[in-house]
Structure formats: C-alpha cells, structure tokens
C-alpha cells in the first residue's frame, strides 16, 4: 500500500531571523490592492496637554506688560493662524504683586476741591455737638402750592386749567398741571421767561394720568432747565400755563400776575451724624 508524497518540515536556517511584526499604522502595505503609504513619524502626533491646570492666586500683570505681550503675539501670528491669548502673573515672572508710589514734597497728590471742603466741614463737626447750618442760593416760589389753596376745585371748573405745584432742584424747575377732560385730544404747555417777557420759551407738558371722579380731570407734568446766571440773588423766573382743547385756548397765569420764582438765600441744617458718615461718598 503506497502512501502519497509527504511534505517534510524544513527547519529554518541557523543564520536566518524571523522578520519583525509590522505596526498597525503600516498594515496597509500588506494589502496588494492598495497603494502603500508611508508611516507617520512620531512628530506628527498631537501634543498631549494636562487635563487639570492649576492657576496661581495672584493679580494679573501690569497694563504695560500686557500691551507688550499682545504686540509680540500679534507680530508673530501668520496669516491663517489662530491667535492664542496667554495670561501671565506677576509672581510667576518674579515680580512684586504691589507697586508702591513715593511722593516727594513737591509732588503732593491733587485732591478735588469739593472733597477738601467736605473734609473741612467734617473737621468743624468733630469739635461741635450742634447741627451745621449752610446757606444756599436757590429759586424759591413766590406763591403757595395752588392745589393746597381753598377753592381749587371751583377755580379749575371755571378756567379748566390750574397749576398744582412747582418743585425746584439742580436739574431745573418741574411741576404738575391739572386740566378738565373736555376732549380726548388736548395739549398743555408752559410758557416761561428769564428776562421779564422780553424773550420767552415754551415747554410741552406730558400726560401723567387721569384724576378726579370717573376720569373727569387729567394731570400733566412739565419741566425746563434753569441757566446758571439765575442762581444770583434777586433773579426771577416767570411762567404761565396754556391749555388747548376742542379748538379753544385757556390760560392759568395766577389771576394775571404770572407765577414767579425768585433766587433767595436758603438756610440748610444738616445733622452732625450725617456729615460724619457722608465722607465716603466723595472717595
């Protein structure tokens, strides 16, 4: 009984070596159908960055160093690249965290005048237990608030427009006017003068809301600025109120005398406790 030819196992030669296994990145070379491509060098791999970063507890660098760093980064950036922002801290660069400025005798820091005056007031209050009295020049109405006068409702029903009250402040003169709701379309304005009616100006009042029973009346608010020269003693402001409705025109000029305000000296009393605690507002 004959046996077929048997294959003999030939051991490798003593001087030969088994080829080293190829890396996974070069496995494409074994595929004959595809074109072999070279392996990527290790330098092409993206750099690793730490997951957690620790930030120094210090103040940022000075504006001069930040501007220099920004200029250097802008010049090094090429077209098409993305600019990266870096933050450096003073302690990381070996610098001091605080900057001390030493003033000489001829380089005293300039302090605003209103701060010095307030400090002088506080020094006077420290030596006195009484209230401090100031004298200010401001515009004061020459009339009592019309809304608090008796017969205001009857006067409003007769002339259809009446001034309620006036308030003076640093921003100017403001007040309110009450009119009878004769029609939906209405216009209220205040005509005023600083020169005794040689020249005049007008300020349009704005509707604030209804008033009276069942909206029978409306309230308008007005305001106009005051020039600085009117804060001299004796200066006066005159004004009157005009009301246009249903094709007619009505006026409230304080019974033909006009409403006026005069600049007078006004005494202001300030408690000692408020003056001592108000210095912080001027820092």
Overview of the structural elements:
- This protein is α+β, with helices and mostly antiparallel strands and 283 residues long.
- Among the domains are: 113-135 and 273-282, no CATH class; 138-268, Carbohydrate binding type-21 domain (Immunoglobulin-like, Sandwich).
- The chain has helices at 63-76, 113-126, 152-159, 272-277; strands at 132-141, 161-169, 172-180, 186-193, 201-204, 206-211, 217-224, 236-245, 248-252, 259-270.
- Strand 6 and strand 7 form a beta hairpin.
- The longest helix is centred in the N-terminal third of the chain and has 14 residues, at 63-76.
- It starts with 62 loop residues before the first helix and ends in a 6-residue tail after the last helix.
- Residues 1-10, 22-33 and 279-283 have low confidence and may be disordered.
Indicate the CATH architecture of the domain at 138-268: Sandwich
Task: Please give the share of residues in helix.
Answer: 10-25%
> What would the CATH topology of the domain at 138-268 be?
Immunoglobulin-like
The helix/strand class is alpha+beta
Strand content: 25-35%
Q: Which homologous superfamily in CATH is the superfamily of the domain at 138-268?
A: Carbohydrate binding type-21 domain
Characterize the largest beta sheet: strand count, sense, and whether it forms a barrel.
6 strands, antiparallel
What gyration radius follows from the Cα positions, in whole Å? 44 Å
H-E order? HHEHEEEEEEEEEH
Distinct helical segment count: 4
Q: What's the number of extended β-strand segments?
A: 10
CATH class of the domain at 138-268: Mainly Beta
Cα-to-Cα separation, first versus last residue: 120 Å
Q: Note the overall shape.
A: elongated
Averaged pLDDT:
74
Instruction: Report the uncertain regions.
Output: 1-10, 22-33, 279-283
């Amino acid at each position: 009984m004959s046996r077929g030819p048997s294959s003999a196992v030939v051991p490798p030669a003593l001087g030969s070596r088994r080829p080293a296994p190829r890396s996974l990145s070069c496995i494409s070379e074994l595929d004959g159908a595809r074109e072999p491509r070279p392996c990527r060098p290790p330098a092409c791999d993206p750099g690793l960055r730490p997951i957690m970063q620790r930030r120094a507890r210090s103040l940022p660098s000075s504006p001069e160093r930040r501007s220099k760093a920004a200029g250097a980064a802008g010049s090094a950036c090429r077209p098409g690249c993305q600019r990266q922002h870096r933050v450096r801290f003073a302690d990381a660069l070996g610098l001091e965290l605080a900057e001390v400025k030493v003033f000489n005798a001829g380089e005293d820091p300039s302090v605003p005048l209103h701060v010095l005056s307030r400090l002088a007031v506080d020094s006077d209050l420290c030596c006195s237990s009484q209230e401090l009295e100031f004298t200010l020049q401001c515009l004061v109405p020459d009339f009592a608030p019309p809304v608090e006068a008796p017969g205001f409702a009857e006067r409003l029903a007769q002339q259809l427009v009446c001034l309620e009250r006036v308030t003076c402040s640093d921003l100017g003169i403001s007040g309110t006017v009450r009119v009878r709701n004769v029609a939906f379309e209405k216009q209220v304005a205040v005509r005023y003068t600083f020169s005794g009616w040689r020249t005049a100006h007008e300020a349009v009042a704005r509707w604030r809301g209804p008033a009276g029973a069942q909206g029978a009346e409306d309230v308008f608010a007005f305001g106009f600025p005051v020039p600085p020269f009117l804060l001299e003693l004796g200066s006066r402001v005159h004004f009157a109120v005009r009301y246009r409705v249903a094709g007619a025109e009505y006026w409230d000029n304080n019974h033909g005398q006009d409403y006026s305000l005069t600049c007078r000296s006004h005494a202001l009393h300030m408690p000692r406790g408020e003056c001592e605690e108000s210095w912080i507002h001027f820092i």
